[in-house]
Specification:
The chain is mainly beta. The protein has one helix at about 10-20, and strands at about 5, 35-40, 45-55, 60-65, 75-80, 80-85, 95-100, 105-110, 115-130, 130-140, 150-160, 160-170, 175-185, 190, 195-200, 205, 210-220, 225-230, 235-240, 250, 265, 270-280, 285-295, 300-310. About 5% of the residues lie in helices and about 55% in strands. A hairpin with a 6-residue loop joins strand 2 (about 35-40) and strand 3 (about 45-55). It is globular, with a radius of gyration of 25 Å.
Amino acid sequence: MMYKTALTLLFASAGLFAQDQQQHYFPLDIGNQWVYRSAGRAPAESWVVEVTGTREVNGARYFQVTGFPGGPLLMRYRENNVLVFLRRDEGQERTWLPFNAAVGEAFATGIDECNPTAVIRSRRATVRSPLGEFTDGLEVGYAPGQCADAGLTQETYLPGIGLAERRSTSFTGERVMQLVYARLSGGYVEVGAAETGFTVATDRLVYAPGAIATVRMTLRNTQDQPLVLTFPSGQDYDVQIRDGKGEIVYTWSANRAFPLIYRGEVLIQGTKQWLAIVDLPQLAPGDYSLTGFLATTQKVEATIPIRVERPTPAAPTVQNRR
């Protein structure tokens, strides 16, 4: 795969995945996810397209795909790398795209009713997107159809990644949807546009009163600009738990002391993680929220729900006496 991007390692892995999948331009595996956002002057719009499961119809195994305009789809690959789909209210299988079609060869497609005919224009198309610049895109052009000033005009797919860009037109002008994030579980590949984010994860969602929780905090920066963090003490992070009323019932740092050292840290690109071992108090059963945050002058935090439940007593063992 030829490209220009800071995500070299991830996309190289995606290229290997594409070879294993016979150059599938829309990988179908449960858990795959693609996030799109609109570009240009059009009104803001976003899609989250996901493969959520499988379903058997007339002896054929389909993947359930949600998030595309028009509602959920059932999708599968037929022979010769032809991607087909079913809508839930239809029994007739339609062609999405025949990815092995020759360049310049027209074919029928059912993606958009306004454009029943399409053609592969190039297999070496240049794609400039929030993910980077690529030179091995499969570019699909759509012929004007039966809808005046409406319908698809062009799509570009990346091997092993999926739909990278979709262009359409309407009476309000051109609309461009671009891929900004992809998670491909089949090849363990995760790619995204340049961004900065902070997440919190726990080893469980349900805990017993007084249990020990492991809390992992992850700071991610893929921006070109370095991320500068300012810590007013020797404390790196903190963890708080709030009850259903929003009242704080636990603070990790409450009985800890930290040196008064004003310091800075720089995250150029990549991720940095912190791990906190939390001794939960004897909380009453119920729903709580757990917030992990960095002890910086900037506000860097994330919150997830947890639940406290009392363990179910084990059933007494009955021994047979002879």
